[in-house]
Amino acid sequence: MLLVHKYGGTSVGSLERIENVASRVSKAREEGHDLVVVVSAMSGETNKLIEYAHHFTPNPAKQEMDMLLSSGERVTAALLSIALQAKGHDAVAMTGRQAGIVTDTSHTYARIETIDPTAMQNAIKQGKIVIVAGFQGVNKEGNVTTLGRGGSDLSAVAIAGALSADACEIYSDVDGIYTTDPRIEPKAKKLDIISYDEMLEMASLGAKVLQNRSVELAKKLNIKLYAKSSFSDNNGTLITKESANMEEVLVSGVVLDKNQARVTLRNVSDKPGIAAEIFTKLAKENINVDMIIQNVGIDGATHLGFTVAQNELERAKKVIESFDHDIKGMDFDENICKVSVVGVGMRSHAGVAAQAFSTLASSNINIEMIATSEIKVSMVINEKYGELATRMLHEAYGLDN
Ligand code: ADP
Ligand code: ASP
Ligand code: MG
Questions:
Q1: How much of the chain, in percent, has pLDDT values that exceed 70?
Q2: pLDDT surpassing 90 at residue 297
Q3: Region 162-189: what's the mean pLDDT?
Q4: What is the per-residue pLDDT across 15-65, written as a single tens digit (0 to 9) for each?
Q5: Sequence-separated (6 or more) residues with CB below 8 Å from residue 244
Q6: For residue range 367-384, what is the model confidence (pLDDT) as tens digits?
Q7: pLDDT value of residue 229
């Protein structure tokens, strides 16, 4: 079998842990598998590099940031390859460019356009274990790019697709996908299997265990994706196509996202095209917007509210301030969070949203915004009640162990 493994920051967070990964890869190799191993930077490394740049300016050039941040993953790729060679294996470390990953030109948030797998295939044919630095590629101009935070998951899935690998296994410090973040609710249960769509919602709603773009790509390419732990030999969770019996479960998971902020725009000129203008400008800056609510317009003006990631709020503010002629007032609130319940079973069952609202009401938690889709209900509440609400919902839908 050809397997793609990906080891995240915690799994390669020290030399001992890199040694542990080398032993695991070595074991898979001795079982007879061909292997491509994608690695993240050592935990904390990417944040440290960002701080280094911010020592000089709050707005460093994005091209230089990519040059800087891509170095973290190169360090671990080289060290893991060296560790494997020391164990007597034939291994080779590659950067994103060497692995043939070509992206578009949007620095720090690039999209993978193509992968030329020839170099990886040749190395595999020569019996080598291929180690690839995650989170990076190269654009048409030959400059290094990075794929957005958590982007090594995306590197792994894209490589699995380009090589038609038998499976892509993402290793972290948890042994799979749980009904909610086990750090918030110790009663959370590990799921054996979850659909791409549910996982995509959970990832997009803030469960950082898998990067959302990686799940989207795995779904598109129908890749057998596993979430496993690098610290145990437990089975992990399979992320796969939806099957009929999955709908029997009403809610598969509860997600808390504390990295949220709300923007409220008051007395926005109520004219055609204004929303398009505001949100196009935000999109151009790669600011993801969620939970948009527009009130009924009165006297030619309306109110508009939406949420953004807290760490993108400053950039969002700048964009919005450029609309001062059309917006009469604006508020920004960082003391909010988003709690969501996700499940494909909602498609065929009524009353899921109502149950979520009553659960929060029973603890006197005020719901400030609501958004729903076929398979999720999201609620914005005061940040201080986030963890309590997560545990209450987890219990209400029968997810506690
Ligand atoms: P890595 O650094 O290996 O990429 P991450 O830190 O990105 O790993 O993801 C693993 C973390 O995701 C876990 O430590 C866990 O706290 C968190 N997490 C959030 N939601 C969930 C969930 N539903 N199931 C499992 N882990 C979750
Ligand atoms: N090192 C990058 C980050 O911290 C990419 C990754 O770990 O997937 O976001
Ligand atoms: Mg991650």
A1: 100
A2: no
A3: 97
A4: 999 999 999 999 999 999 999 999 999 999 999 999 999 999 988 999 999
A5: none
A6: 999 999 999 999 999 999
A7: 98
For helices 212-221 and 152-162, give the axis angle rounded to 10 degrees: 10
Q: What is the pTM of this model?
A: 0.94
Cα–Cα distances in angstroms (integers) from residue 26 to residues 20, 84, 229, 279, in the given order: 10, 7, 16, 49
84 alpha carbon, distance to own chain's centre: 29
For residue 236, pLDDT over 90 is answered with: yes
Helix (H) or strand (E) holding 137: strand 136-138
Domain boundaries defined on the chain: 2-173
How far apart are alpha carbons 166 and 152 in whole angstroms? 19
The bridge status of strand 129-133 relative to strand 91-94 is parallel
Q: Could you tell me if the CB of 156 is within 6 A of ligand 2?
A: no
- What spacing in Å lies between the alpha carbon of 77 and ligand 1's midpoint? 21
Side chain identity, residue 206: G
Task: Give the number of the ligand closest to the Cα of residue 157.
Answer: 2
pLDDT at 401 exceeding the cut of 80: no
Distance 171 CA to ligand 2 centre (A): 13
Probe ligand 1: pick from 17, 46, 174, 194, max atoms within 8 Å of CB? 174
Which CATH class, in words, describes the domain spanning 2-173?
Answer: alpha beta
> Tokens standing for 7?
């080891």
- Cβ–ligand 2 contact at 83 (below 6 Å): no
- Taking the CA atoms of residue 173, residue 177, residue 180 and residue 186 in that order, the dihedral angle to the nearest 10 degrees is -50
Give me the phi and psi of 115, to 5 degrees please.
-130, 125
Cα separation values, 189 from 81, 88, 177, 179, Å: 35, 39, 8, 5
